[in-house]
Write a structure and sequence with these properties.
About 9% of the residues have low confidence. By secondary structure, the chain is α+β, with helices and mostly antiparallel strands. Strand 1 and strand 2 form a beta hairpin. The protein has six helices and seven strands. The protein is globular, with a radius of gyration of 18 Å. Strands 1-2-5-7 form a four-stranded mixed β-sheet. It has a three-stranded antiparallel β-sheet with strand order 4-3-6. The longest helix has 18 residues.
Length: 189
């Protein structure tokens, strides 16, 4: 039994060092004063992602649960999924010009983390919403994963078109994430 526990611990340590990033979650309670001076409490989760790997790490939101399929399948589906008449793969494959880009969260959200950088996601939510909502629908991958699916120089084009999310944090309501996920499940056959 000890041998299996030791092997399990080694396997988990190996997985965390291979992925090269850490996600920590903490819960906070904020006091919100409204104009009519009523007091409400808002609960928030903070997810911190730090890149400990020498390669760039890309962060995306996905409609699919990342615990069900392999990362490469999820990444390919996310990059090829159409949002209106645009998909993220078009950044690498099409010769196009983007003017006045505004990041649409969570559909077209892309954040690139260089070595040593960190990124915080603040999710305001009532207590009834699962704290696993973000971690189950957050794709974190290395640049080499994008190369495996044929999106060479994707990070270069993100910078060229100023499509990378520019801030070190994101504040989002959990209901926006829920709506994003439910829209995709309604469209599936």
């Amino acid at each position: 039994m000890r041998r299996y526990c030791f092997l399990l611990i080694l396997l988990q340590l190996h997985i965390f060092t291979v992925w090269g990033q850490t996600i920590t979650k903490s819960k906070a309670k904020y006091l919100i004063m409204e104009r009519n001076e009523t007091v409400t409490y808002e609960f928030s989760y903070r997810y911190s992602i730090k890149n400990d790997d020498s390669l760039c790490v890309i962060i995306l939101f996905t409609e699919d649960d990342n615990n069900i399929e392999p990362l490469q399948n999820l990444l390919k589906r996310k990059m090829l999924r159409k949002y209106g008449d645009f998909s993220l793969a078009m950044l690498a494959w099409e010769n196009m010009y983007i003017e006045n880009n505004y990041t649409i969260v969570p559909e077209l959200f892309v954040k690139v983390l260089e070595y040593g950088e960190s990124f915080d996601i603040y999710v305001s939510s009532p207590d009834s919403i699962s704290s696993q909502l973000i971690t189950n629908h957050l794709l974190i991958c290395k640049e080499e994963e994008l190369n495996k699916i044929g999106l060479f120089d994707f990070i270069y084009y993100l910078g060229e078109y100023k499509f990378d999310y520019p801030f070190p944090y994101l504040v989002i309501n959990a209901k926006v994430i829920e709506s994003f996920i439910s829209k995709s499940t309604e469209c599936r056959p």
